[in-house]
Design a protein that fits this description.
Length: 192
């Protein structure tokens, strides 16, 4: 005669399977958190670049008497960040503003918006250092004799580190690299 026994509790195999399923779920959550933080930082950088573009468009609007092509820059890069001959506004180094023509103010505006003031060694004070800006271009869609008669498009490009859709694998060493540097661009029309 067979005696039927009823087991109470879990078998060891059920506990191991449950722990495995929980571990996979927690790894998925940690990967999701990593992607979320990375994309959050990228969104913050994008917002700061929009502020740079907006500041430059407001400076263009505030200088309506400059020549129509005085703000036009084909490709202004960090290598072009030499300080202008005249500083048309007070700066952090304590230098007072000098009297500038409208065209000198235009050159200063582009430099100050894109390159900014250097605050000293080890301090990220300007946009090209802190935002990893790559280029600035200002094109004139319809150039008049002055800024107030012209329409512009301001574009700023920067390096963005974002999570790639496809993880790249180095076959020789089996190292995984989930980040890829991408150049992103924001363009904004300006109608003074």
């Amino acid at each position: 005669m067979l005696i039927k026994t009823q087991s109470n509790g879990f078998a060891l195999i059920e506990v191991v399977v449950t722990m495995f399923v929980m571990a996979v779920g927690l790894l998925g959550l940690s990967a999701l958190q990593s992607v979320s933080v990375k994309n959050g930082l990228d969104t913050g950088t994008r917002s700061q670049v929009i502020w740079v573009v907006t500041e430059l468009t407001e400076r263009i609007r505030a200088n309506p008497d400059a020549d129509g092509n005085s703000y036009v820059k084909a490709a202004f890069t960090p290598a072009d960040c030499a300080a202008p001959t005249k500083r048309c506004a007070d700066n952090s180094a304590g230098a007072a503003a000098t009297n500038c023509t409208a065209n000198e103010m235009a050159a200063y505006d582009v430099w100050d918006s894109f390159c900014g003031q250097s605050a000293g060694t080890g301090v990220l004070a300007n946009a090209t250092e802190s935002l990893d800006l790559q280029s600035l271009s200002i094109t004139c869609n319809s150039c008049g004799t002055t800024v107030k008669d012209s329409n512009y498009t301001v574009s700023v490009s920067w390096i963005s580190e974002s999570i790639s859709q496809q993880t790249q694998v180095d076959q020789a060493s089996s190292n995984f690299d989930a980040t890829v540097q991408q150049t992103r661009t924001i363009s904004m029309p300006v109608y003074p």
